[in-house]
Design brief:
Helices cover about 10% and strands about 55% of the residues. It is mostly beta strands.
Length: about 160
């Protein structure tokens, strides 16, 4: 009876136990700390991950917004900062302040939106830029006198 009371007390004190969700995915490295889930418009942003993989099977273990990715063939394991899915934005031109997170990955400051570019060399930190977006989510980022091709806009996903 004491065991049952103790168990009931513990359940009341700790009403939930954090449980990680596991996903079996195939990923390809798209840039420094940036991996794309093959066949999906979803990016995995890692911390200090140096695994150069192409269509490699992996386990993505997530707990809310962060987690880890384990590469099955190469045996590498990396912390996941966040997972990002497409962010729908109305077509148009926007003046934005951007911060470079990694190669070809910029945050729009204060908006929770991230820009995936191609071949953009700007080291922007609090840099004002002009973002031109078309109906498909593609466009151009004008920053520091340069033009960068925009492949898409993304926001964090909670898995």
């Amino acid at each position: 009876m004491k065991t049952l009371r103790l168990l009931l007390l513990l359940v009341l004190i700790f009403p939930f136990i954090a449980e990680a969700d596991n996903y079996e995915v195939s990923v390809t490295r798209k840039g420094s700390n940036l991996y794309k889930i093959d066949g999906k418009n979803i990016y995995v942003h890692t911390r200090y991950c140096y695994s150069y993989v192409y269509s490699e099977n992996a386990f993505l273990k997530m707990n809310g917004y962060s987690g880890e990715i384990i590469f099955l063939d190469s045996g590498g394991k990396c912390d996941v900062k966040a997972v990002y899915g497409p962010s729908e934005q109305k077509p148009g031109k926007y003046t934005v302040t951007i911060n470079r997170e990694n190669d070809d990955w910029y945050e729009i400051w204060g908006k929770g939106i991230y820009i995936k570019t191609s071949g953009c060399l700007s080291l922007a930190l609090g840099q004002e830029a002009v973002l031109s977006i078309t109906a498909g989510g593609y466009g151009t980022l004008y920053v520091e006198g340069n033009q960068c091709m925009v492949e898409g806009l993304y926001s964090k996903m909670k898995l």
